[in-house]
Amino acid sequence: MSSKQGGKAKPLKQPKSEKKEYDEHDLANIQKKKEEEKALRELRAKASQKGSFGGSGLKKSGKK
């Protein structure tokens, strides 16, 4: 082999992760996180329908 290798180097293979066993507390936290994410996506969708906030951009003060 030469010292110069062309192309991209292949990444090393990662060992397969073992399946984790969750207890009731962990499952409750995962479920809560999924529900919060779902609510956040719904809020984003609702906000995108209305358009921009205010619509006038930055407000200037009356002072000079």
Automatic annotation (TrEMBL):
Skewed-composition ranges (Basic and acidic residues): 15-45
Annotated segments matching region Disordered: 1-64
InterPro entries: TMA7
Pfam families with a match to the protein in the record: TMA7
Name of this protein: Translation machinery associated TMA7
